[in-house]
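Lesson 9: reading folded outputs for more than one chain in a single document. The general rule is that every protein is listed as its sequence immediately followed by its structure tokens, and records are never interleaved. Here is the first one.
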Amino acid sequence: MEKGIQTDNILNFNETGYQVGVGGDQDIVTFYLKRRHTLPNDTNHEHITFTEIISAGGWSIPPIIIISGIILLKRYFQDLLDGYLVAVSDSGYTNDEILYEIIKHINKFTKP
């Protein structure tokens, strides 16, 4: 490669956010015309962020999942696959502290 940079040394970091409880366009089909039907409202603004880190060589680093909240109880995350990282922020978005953890996470899998 150019300048001696190998494809395994090129990483792409991407993050995608999801609003909890909101699917996409939703329709209700029913036979009960007089019954009141409700859809999830748009006042639920809980947010989860998923990240992915993929090398140009085709391998990937386990994802980081960022959940909105204040604290996490480890017992809720006992069945995660090896290497997955779960973080918490009050908004569910990346912040400075989580970004530092992401850098350490990347370093853990790229240092060897």
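And here is the second record, again sequence then tokens.
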Amino acid sequence: MPSFLTVVLNDERQFNAPDVRIPMLSLSRVLPQTAPESPYPYREYHSSYDTTEIISNDRLKDSCNLVLKMIDAIENNHIPINKYKGEIFLSRYNLFKDWQTLQEVIFVIDGKHSIAQIAEKCDLSFMTTKKIIDELYVNNLIDFIKN
């Protein structure tokens, strides 16, 4: 079963139907079906009570920020490549802030993996990985593969 069919379904099912196949994502804040805290997906779902009045402004802002972070990740998911050989002289570049995480990221930079792939391999967020990559770039230690 495609993973998008495991959450609350909206129009993504129609857009991803056979012979349509328009890539579509769905963002959902509902609890899993197994969560005892509330009825699945939520009490008002597909009823006349499913109106804008039940929307929390704070949650809407959180969702908007998440979408903006997703767009930023897509736009900045470059492939870094080393401009150095061997170990980096970290104190020269003041890169001792999080030595272990830095070493994990540096080890994966090979000109084949995007920032998102590096983040996944290192079990880090995209933004944490991008921050490290940006520091390496500013210090002229890496470059990016041109697409």
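What the second record shows: Residues 65 and 94 are 31 Å apart (CA to CA).
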